[in-house]
Amino acid sequence: MTATLIDGKAFAAGLRTRIGTAVAALKTQGITPGLAVVLVGEDPASEVYIRSKGRMTREVGMNSFEHRLPADTPQADLLALIDRLNADPAVNGILVQLPLPRHMDEAAVINAIDPAKDVDGFHILNVGRLATGQKAMVPCTPLGCLMLLRDQLGSLSGKNALVIGRSNIVGKPMAQLLLRDSATVTVAHSRTANLRDLCRQADIVVAAVGRARFVQGDWIKPGAVVIDVGINRTDDGLVGDVDFVSASQFAGAITPVPGGVGPMTIACLLANTLTATARANGLPDPQ
Ligand code: NDP
């Protein structure tokens, strides 16, 4: 069996086009969504992300505001900037690029963002709302994975889903989203016993481990849908957390790396900014 390739790049491009159309419609009502991105320090990977976020934000017709602060910025100054962005009506979404320098308390910084503008969905209120089935801002990477899964499978109800990884930014919110869609969810992590056996039972595998080619092809249940969140730099270039070549022999459908989940993350950031703008203006959530 050879798996269907899930083209996240094309899906994300389609999503951005739909967002662009919705932004154009908002502009006729005098509303221009604005996304503020804050980068503290000079992490090269974050620089790359920020540049492409800014470009794509402008491409869909939104305003992009970039704030770069030196690595030794006192936390109080960052919190003061967040306060100003919270109060600025031109800013609908605020993203503080992680990781932050060590002298900062990441949770305190994230929880200082107005939850209504928390387009990363990391604020404790949004985490709680997602967990309790209330209207929330949902973290971008898992939201992108969910869109790809729904596109492949239609309903996820009753499917056995295995999430490998329990981070706050990917694994845990992914599990919540799958649960919300009535999948039967197992969350695996570094202490999990019999990961291979759990994987063999899964109709859906979402790998967010951070280890190159960790999930082996013969762990995959024939026909399963495999979503590879991993981005690992190796001598052979970027690879995922799934051994793509062997997994493609078993999976029904699989995301490539690059070109799978990665492009969905930024598209979902724009989708969240659009949603935040609609809510701020008393409009219904965009579809
Ligand atoms: P973290 O390092 O925060 O979490 C990794 C998780 O994997 C942990 O829960 C860890 O378990 C688990 N794990 C580690 N080793 C094993 C093992 N041997 N068996 C089972 N589980 C294991 O990573 P993130 O969640 O932030 O990211 C995961 C991957 O996704 C990375 O490659 C990252 O680069 C990528 N990523 C991609 C994004 C995109 O846009 N495509 C966005 C965000 C991340 P434990 O908790 O026990 O330590």
UniProtKB/TrEMBL annotation:
Belongs to the tetrahydrofolate dehydrogenase/cyclohydrolase family. GO terms for molecular function: methenyltetrahydrofolate cyclohydrolase activity; methylenetetrahydrofolate dehydrogenase (NADP+) activity. HAMAP family: THF_DHG_CYH. Its EC number is 1.5.1.5, 3.5.4.9. It comes from Paracoccus aerius. Keywords: Amino-acid biosynthesis, Histidine biosynthesis, Hydrolase, Methionine biosynthesis, Multifunctional enzyme, NADP, One-carbon metabolism, Oxidoreductase, Purine biosynthesis. This is Bifunctional protein FolD. The lineage of its organism: Bacteria, Pseudomonadati, Pseudomonadota, Alphaproteobacteria, Rhodobacterales. PANTHER family: C-1-TETRAHYDROFOLATE SYNTHASE, CYTOPLASMIC (PTHR48099:SF5), C-1-TETRAHYDROFOLATE SYNTHASE, CYTOPLASMIC-RELATED (PTHR48099). NADP(+) binds at residues 165-167, 231. It catalyses: (6R)-5,10-methenyltetrahydrofolate + H2O = (6R)-10-formyltetrahydrofolate + H(+); (6R)-5,10-methylene-5,6,7,8-tetrahydrofolate + NADP(+) = (6R)-5,10-methenyltetrahydrofolate + NADPH. Homodimer. CDD domains: NAD_bind_m-THF_DH_Cyclohyd. Residues 6-120 form the Tetrahydrofolate dehydrogenase/cyclohydrolase catalytic domain. Residues 139-279 form the Tetrahydrofolate dehydrogenase/cyclohydrolase NAD(P)-binding domain. Pathway: One-carbon metabolism; tetrahydrofolate interconversion. Catalyzes the oxidation of 5,10-methylenetetrahydrofolate to 5,10-methenyltetrahydrofolate and then the hydrolysis of 5,10-methenyltetrahydrofolate to 10-formyltetrahydrofolate.
